[in-house]
Design a protein that fits this description.
heterodimer; A: mainly alpha; two-stranded antiparallel ribbon; 11 helices; B: 11 helices
């Protein structure tokens, strides 16, 4: 009797029946369970993380203005509409890999990976969690920019796909980084170096024309400039061109990152 | 007889004649040299990384500020170039040194160091010496690379010696004192990150102080970052900075305060 009870996994709400690990219901249920798991996991970090993102966003908007004696309106708009990209990427691309690196150091990585939930749903759940602190930070940064530099936004409905695509690609890149690199120290260093690349060497908060030609060319194929283009294109009129191409570049990075992450998490060690 | 041999401590030069006295300048100096060897040996893997990090940060930020500003006038470029070494000093003294102190706290190394038969002041002086000495090449290399990037020629004066020494010593002392005073190493790490953010965005290091709101400018006249940048800038340029006496005085004040704070923290019994 003990043998009959012990190995039987059951469908939630239908005790006694073997669980079918397939189908939309199983996927949605798995998504919800991991979403709650992730929220509980970072519950102590979440208020601090939200505060850090808000201060980081507002800090960049106000601080970069001090570099100029009189900041040109275009530069002010670039900074104010570039900072939201930074807010959207911080959790998925920077904080996420740090968490996975910590899991690897502590030895809980294999445990989390062994949970009976589709890996894609684990990614989507983490993606949803990463939006929770990012969206208010992004909004506040924009409001601070408008209040400080006196410009008006022209927000269109394209802001929804722009924000979702940017943060999804960032989360997938963070996933590829954290699962593709097995050494936690290298993961930490790579994600921290990306911060430097993102805010210093990518035309996110300033026009690409201010970079050396070779770096501007390289950035046409890297994801950050394109992310800024699609977000900025949805927030202001007449400042960006090539939004379609930018979506293609961002999409390509999302697919490539998803493939790397899928290969890494599907690989048996 | 065995016991008397073990208990006898002696001067290195006269092994069996005089009991060793643990005080006086000679004993302090010997302890200081021994701790210098200890610090260099125990940090030998981290020190090159420390040097590399401060140069990368200083030069990297000098380049990045240029990207943000777009077209630069000669004066703006000069401000960036002569501000970059201040960023290297801050990275070394107020980020790397506190991180080292925090890591040693986590590892319990300080308990071991304080238990060594050397004066604590010699131990602290050794740490200050190592980090100050290592910061100076960072300043020179950062200045050289940043001026090459913007095609500027600097005019170093003999004041580079006191300027580089005092700024490095002040930053190391404040960073060390801060990390010793904060009990929780995690709080130290967060504090250094906040410090970097404030220095990069809200400190008049690579731009003139009159670009700040008045209240923030007044605060910076008392904090050590602005005087640090001014003293270095004055030592390598002509006519850009007038009267650095106040800046020197403020740096000396912060160094003295950091030493006093460090002495109080490490001198007390737990």
């Amino acid at each position: 009797m003990a043998v009959a009870v012990a190995p039987r996994a059951t469908r939630p709400g239908a005790p006694g029946l073997p669980e079918v690990r397939a189908g939309p219901r199983y996927w949605i249920h798995g998504y919800w369970r991991v979403f709650v798991w992730d929220l509980v996991d970072i519950r102590l970090h979440l208020p601090i993380l939200s505060a850090v993102l808000i201060l980081q966003g507002a800090g960049f908007v106000l601080g970069i203005g001090l570099f100029f004696r009189h900041i040109p309106q275009a530069a002010a708009i670039y900074v104010s509409t570039g900072v939201p990209v930074l807010s959207l990427l911080t959790v998925g691309l920077i904080f996420g890999p740090q968490i996975v690196a910590t899991q690897r150091t502590e030895g809980s990585y294999e445990f989390v990976q062994s949970m009976p939930v589709p890996r894609a749903m684990m990614t989507m759940a983490w993606y949803t969690v990463s939006l929770i602190p990012a969206l208010p930070a992004m909004t506040i940064a924009l409001l601070v920019g408008m209040a400080r530099y006196h410009f008006h936004l022209d927000v269109t409905s394209a802001v929804v796909p722009a924000v979702l695509a940017t943060s999804l690609t960032g989360t997938l890149m963070g996933y590829a980084l954290s699962h593709g690199i097995t050494n936690p120290m290298t993961t930490r260093l790579a994600s921290l170096s990306l911060v430097f690349v993102l805010f210093g060497f990518s035309p996110v908060m300033f026009p690409a024309a201010q970079l050396p030609h070779w770096l501007a060319e390289a950035n046409r194929w890297l994801p950050f400039e394109s992310m800024a283009t699609i977000v900025r294109g949805a927030l202001v009129k007449g400042m960006v061109t090539g939004v379609g191409r930018a979506y293609l570049v961002v999409g390509a990075w999302a697919v490539a990152s998803a493939l790397v992450a899928a290969r890494a998490v599907g690989h048996r060690s | 007889m065995g016991a008397s041999v073990i208990e006898r401590r002696s001067w290195p030069s006269s092994p069996d004649l005089v009991s060793r006295i643990r005080r006086g300048p000679r004993y302090w100096f010997e302890s200081y040299v021994a701790m210098l060897r200890f610090d260099v040996a125990s940090q030998r893997m981290a020190l090159p990384e420390f040097l590399f990090m401060q140069i990368m940060f200083g030069v990297g930020m000098a380049i990045i500020y240029g990207f943000y500003l777009g077209h630069l006038s000669r004066e703006t470029a000069l401000y960036i170039v002569t501000g970059a070494p201040a960023l290297a000093v801050v990275t070394a003294g107020m980020v790397a040194a506190p991180t080292m102190v925090a890591e040693r706290k986590i590892a319990g190394t300080w308990d071991f160091i304080w238990s060594l038969p050397v004066p604590r002041s010699a131990s602290v002086a050794s740490t200050f010496t190592v980090y100050t000495a290592l910061t100076i090449p960072g300043i020179v290399v950062t200045l050289a690379l940043a001026s090459w990037r913007y095609g500027l020629h600097l005019h170093p004066t003999p004041t580079v010696i006191p300027a580089f020494l005092l700024t490095s010593l002040m930053a190391t002392s404040v960073g060390f004192g801060m990390a010793q005073a904060i009990r929780n190493p995690l709080v130290t790490t967060v504090t250094t990150m906040v410090l970097v953010f404030v220095v990069l965005l809200f400190s008049p290091v690579v731009f003139p102080i009159d670009q700040l709101p008045r209240w923030l400018a007044e605060v910076h006249r008392i904090l050590p970052i602005y005087p640090l940048a001014q003293v270095i800038r004055a030592s390598v340029t002509n006519g850009l900075v007038h009267d650095v006496t106040t800046s020197y005085a403020i740096l000396v004040g912060w160094t003295a305060a950091a030493w006093a704070g460090a002495a109080w923290v490490i001198g007390r019994r737990r």
